[in-house]
Amino acid sequence: MSNETVTLFVSAARTVTTNGADQINRRHRGVVVTIDATAASATPSVVFTIEGKDPVSGKYRTILDSAAVTGIGTTTLRVYPGIVAAANTAANDVLANEWRIIATHGDADSLTYSVGASLIV
Fold this sequence. Notes:
Layout: E1 4-14, E2 18-19, E3 23-24, E4 30-40, E5 46-53, E6 60-65, E7 73-79, E8 90-91, E9 98-105, E10 111-120
Parallel strand pairs: 7-8
Antiparallel strand pairs: 1-10, 2-9, 3-9, 4-7, 4-10, 5-6, 5-9
């Protein structure tokens, strides 16, 4: 088995909270998520959350929240068992069988971003 990459959000200007599609984890233990914000208007504030889905209830649990992204730049989030946990950047956890990303917008100001993921064995 090898590492796998996936596009979660194509680059676009967004102003409202967006739920990413459920992703199926094919036996990977972790993920590195890269958020690339390339344009901002006024004072956007977006928090990106990696969530795992419970297979029985269908409810989501938070694995990791980013700090608010407020302008252009690159943000990296890591989930992997055994890594050193760090607030808003890294979680010592196993990636769920089903998972997703949510981009929660704190206001209506536009932020242009893409989100990609590298699943890690």
